[in-house]
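Thread: quick sanity check before group meeting

JM: Hey all, I'm pulling together slides for Thursday and realized we never actually wrote out the predicted structure for the chain we discussed last week. Dropping the sequence here so it's in one place. If anyone has concerns about the input, flag it before I start.
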Amino acid sequence: MQARMKNPAFVLSDGLKGIGSIMKAIAESGLPQELQEIVGLRVSQINGCSACIHGHTANLVKAGTSAERIATVVAWREAPFFTDAERAALALAEVSTRLADRSAQAVSDELWDEVADHFDERELSALILVIGVTNMFNRINATIQEPAGQTWG
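JM (edit): ok, ran it. Output follows.
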């Protein structure tokens, strides 16, 4: 399978610069890289983005994350392999990704307070950006039909 076109960020180079700036800010935030990848993996699972699922899984394997953790991100509520902070981040990722499924406030005050108990403002900002950027990448990849295992360009 081949993508319909190059990634739009490569076609419109100023877009790539903007994405690069966001990614740099996330990297400098103090939010652990493994958590960024776990959250990105869960968002991509929800959105069914095979390219991003592949990429996040490969990054987690490369970083030495256990097979148990990677395999159970999809069922993080029942799996014993995640910390309370990771669970809070994954819950935020899910509700922020499933905005159309809501019947009340997108992010409840209870969830917000739980997440804020685990992350400082910089880390929380990075977490929100990771969720948003991953959703953006998922939508780009779905539109251009980016196959898993391919690099952009």
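AS: nice. The chain has a mean pLDDT of 94. The chain is about 65% helix and 0% strand.
JM: adding both to the slides.
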